[in-house]
Amino acid sequence: MAFKVDFNKNMIKRGMAPVHPGMILKGLYLEPMEITITQAATKLGVARKTLSQLVNGHMGLVQKWLSVCQRR
Fold it and tell me: What is the pTM for the complete model shown?
């Protein structure tokens, strides 16, 4: 977790806002692969609403998400 904090501090020093994990998920996976939030939620075994909240920036990563990512 210390890496994340240092990384975000460096971004702020350079005048850049930290990127939300949901934006990364959307930009690197969902949009290029043309996968809907519903399809991704089904594959990941999480609720559509939960994934939607993450992708749209209304929720951050929590331990549950890290466990989901490790399983896949």
Answer: 0.67
